[in-house]
């Protein structure tokens, strides 16, 4: 049960960071649309701000180790699934080996 809660929190965090990043990218289009509505006195400032936002690499990171976005969520999910599959396969192999080793053994009590 705790895994589902932690997975939900992780999904919410990565989804929010991903959506915020996408909205920041969309803001350059909005700034260009605003540029056409105003007079020449502030167009220079709008153009400068548009260039600044355009070249701004907006991203959320974990201490600059990796980006926090949906690709991070998918990577963690697939890594956990792979680890779980390996554990299940090893558990099945151990149980089969345990049954095999006892089926060929005879037990003696006493001398």
Automatic annotation (TrEMBL):
One of its GO terms (cellular component) is neuronal cell body. It comes from the Eukaryota. Pfam families: 7tm_7. Its main location: membrane. The keyword Nuclease does not apply. The chain crosses the membrane at residues 73-94. It is found in: Cell membrane. It is a multi-pass membrane protein. Residues 1-16 form the signal peptide. InterPro entries: 7TM_chemorcpt. One of its GO terms (biological process) is chemosensory behavior. PANTHER family: GUSTATORY RECEPTOR (PTHR21143:SF134), INVERTEBRATE GUSTATORY RECEPTOR (PTHR21143). This is Gustatory receptor.
